[in-house]
Design brief:
The protein is mainly alpha-helical and 110 residues long. The chain has a domain at 3-78. The chain has 4 helices and no strands. The protein is elongated, with a radius of gyration of 19 Å. The two termini are 23 Å apart.
Length: 110
């Protein structure tokens, strides 16, 4: 990987980290407890509780993604960054740019 590609990838990771942190903030806001005394009706309250569960799952996934992105940016200067953990071949730059937290090439990931 060239130094220009590394810099481009680093900028892409930083953008994704910023977006993910923003999403985490939004999900935390949406996963606040649903107060039982709110007069929104039984069905609406059930919908609110269900939506809260969906947002909690999205929050967990976003937090996991943030950890993977932070790990990727911390290892971007390592010699084995961008090398498939399974077949040890280089991961195509396009895949890394789209999914910088990838540790496997398309062939090994499927």
């Amino acid at each position: 990987m060239t130094s220009q590609e590394k810099q481009e990838l680093k900028e892409a990771i930083e953008r994704k980290i910023k977006m993910t942190k923003s999403a985490i903030g939004d999900y935390k806001e949406m996963t606040k407890p649903v107060a039982p005394d709110v007069a929104i009706g039984r069905i609406s309250r059930m919908d609110a509780i269900n939506n809260k569960s969906v947002m909690e799952a999205a929050l967990r996934e976003a937090e996991a993604k943030l950890k993977r992105l932070e790990k990727a940016i911390s290892k971007i200067d390592d010699d084995d960054f961008g090398i498939c953990s399974q077949c040890k071949q280089p991961i195509p730059f396009g895949r890394l740019k789209a999914m910088p937290d990838s540790t496997k090439c398309m062939k090994c990931a499927s």
